[in-house]
Amino acid sequence: MYQPELKSILSMMKKILIAVGLLVISCSGETSVDIPEEIASLENLAAFSADSEPAHEINLTPVSVFGDTEEILLSEWLTVQVDDRGRVFIGDNRETVIHLYNPDGTYNRQIGREGDGPGEYRGIGVMRSDENFFYHYDRNNRRLTRYDPDTFDVADSVELTVERDDDEAFFRSVNTFYLTDADDEILVQLGMGFRSGRPDIDLSERRIQGHIFNTATGTFSGEEIYSFRANEALVHFGNDGSMAVMSVPYKRTPVVHVTDGQIIHGWNEHFLFRYYDLNGNYQRAVYYDHVNHPLNRNEVLALYEDRTEPWKGMVQNDEMPETWPSWAGFLPDDEGRLWVEKRTSDPDVTEYHILDASGELLAVFPWSSKRQVQHIQNGYLYSLEENEDGLREVLKYTFDL
Length: 401
Description:
disordered N terminus; mainly beta
């Protein structure tokens, strides 16, 4: 048989299999996995059954608490970062200050202060750290500052801004940034914001985009690394030109993480995670055929019955999906594992599913949606929680797989 004819036959067979909802054998070889058409077409797809049994059990034991001291009272609006030394940085968004704690939970120092000068800021933004610097991006000042990780003196700072085109349907701004292995280069994620007075725009066209930013030159360089669909939201355009935007937990959203030389993307409609290299080239994907839990419209409406207008009306008039999203979030750890916070039938209870680098299920454990896992590294899990007195604090757990 001629090679062109063989390729044509193989291509036709693939299309037929995808069209009927490809049924493949899971990587464990034990059960079948029913894969939606748009997922079945992915290359290097590792598919697993929702009935997969975890290989291990996991135990979490709290070992340290990072929170209030005799001199410091944290607010409820906190941002958390952990460095390779196990030090915990807590940014208090209401007090506009960053607190540093030692690995054992004792207080170390305050970093920076409110203001417009070097090492000062007008708002707590994204914090990152590596062996060379502690990084803080102030959204209000639109400035990225790097601190010496030993003295926390300011090493340098650069303005991180995006030009805005008033003719575009959405305006772009910095959402977050990620560290790369290249000197003076970070991967900046841009989001698309809504514009008032533009009720004609197609909200589904909003994207999140990854671009390389050179901190030495203060400019974006190269082509777009990635472009993914942005989160769904409720938007109300008033007759007076006003606009109201509201995020609700039943809408779909993307999550992106950059770690160990790869970009991991998930859209929580499915239990599906795509892996890319740092140039944005697709590498592989991991999928579990979990069925999303049904959404009860009346139960959702009850959650917003005490809201004022236009917020209450935005939910009442929304065409809600039939199901909740598959998961609430996910985090990679420093061992190549993926920790996915899966939704359950109870809105207040979630389940963490731990996947190894290949996608195999390692462990499952119950969690509370009121506790927010921030980082998993060096054998510890850090969670932002509320204690019995109603105060916010970070708990450090050791875990044993």
